[in-house]
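Page 37, continued from 36.
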């Protein structure tokens, strides 16, 4: 009996030692993710400050990017504007709250459609979901192109979108929104997502089934998956004639910081990346 108890204690001690050995790794990873998110938040705060807008909250996941902001009006009231972006969608949601001249709180909901986008310059249509009223915005002309006495929340919107574009938190590809992948919390519904690389950063769009992800790779476009095994499965299915290739861009024999590990189909044919996880 004594030897059995001793063995059990030894096993428990080994398991505990393994758990504590893993803690630093996950703690460092969590700190890196938090640091990266804080960096984007700080950049957004600085961008928005130029228009006297305050960033209240930023949340990025594979399912949605949400940014909540406030602006103090000349009457010392607070106007709020919250934008929700679904990766892969060409429509964004806008929720506003402001106080009118009678002291009443008014809330409204809109949709935003980016009509043209090039080099951070864009044209957008904002539609009131209740009244159907439309507001047109052209960044080259500025807010002066808006109708007089527009709701404050709508007037805040171009500055918020511009800040998201300038900081690299979000980009548009073919009219659809893509959000920065290294900030994204994992989706419960998808393991694979459309992906694009811009300025060395991986952005993900809408969620994909494995079959859709394989089709995307076959067409020469990139994907991003939640794990190495998921990405490997996509690359393998895209060219089943041999083993896929696993790599990451390197500098002086070491993985480049900020770059993603990824899988290529066999013999890099087709030429596409199945990215996964977080950057190095």
């Amino acid at each position: 009996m004594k030897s059995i108890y001793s063995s059990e204690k030894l096993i428990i001690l080994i398991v505990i030692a393994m758990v504590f050995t893993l803690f630093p790794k996950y703690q460092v990873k969590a700190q890196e993710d938090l640091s990266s998110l804080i960096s984007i938040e700080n950049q957004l705060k600085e961008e928005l400050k130029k228009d006297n807008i305050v960033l209240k909250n930023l949340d990025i996941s594979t399912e949605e990017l949400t940014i909540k902001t406030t602006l103090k009006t000349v009457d010392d009231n607070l106007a709020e504007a919250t934008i929700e972006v679904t990766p892969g969608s060409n429509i964004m949601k806008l929720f506003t709250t402001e106080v009118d001249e009678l002291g009443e709180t008014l809330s409204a909901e809109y949709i935003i459609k980016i009509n043209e986008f090039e080099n951070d310059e864009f044209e957008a249509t904002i539609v009131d979901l209740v009244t159907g009223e439309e507001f047109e915005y052209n960044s080259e002309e500025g807010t002066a192109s808006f109708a007089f006495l527009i709701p404050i929340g709508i007037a805040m919107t171009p500055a918020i979108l511009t800040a998201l574009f300038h900081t690299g938190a979000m980009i548009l590809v073919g009219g659809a929104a893509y959000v920065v992948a290294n900030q994204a919390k994992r989706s419960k519904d998808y393991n694979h997502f459309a992906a694009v690389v811009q300025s060395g950063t991986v952005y993900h769009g809408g969620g994909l089934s494995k079959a859709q992800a394989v089709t995307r790779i076959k067409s020469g476009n990139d994907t991003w998956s939640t794990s190495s095994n998921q990405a490997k499965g996509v690359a393998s299915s895209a060219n089943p004639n041999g083993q896929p290739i696993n790599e990451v861009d390197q500098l002086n024999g070491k993985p480049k910081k900020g770059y993603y590990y990824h899988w290529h189909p066999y013999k890099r044919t087709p030429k596409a990346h199945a990215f996964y996880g977080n950057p190095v």
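The longest strand covers residues 105-118. Flag for discussion at group meeting. Confidence is low (pLDDT under 50) at residues 1-35.
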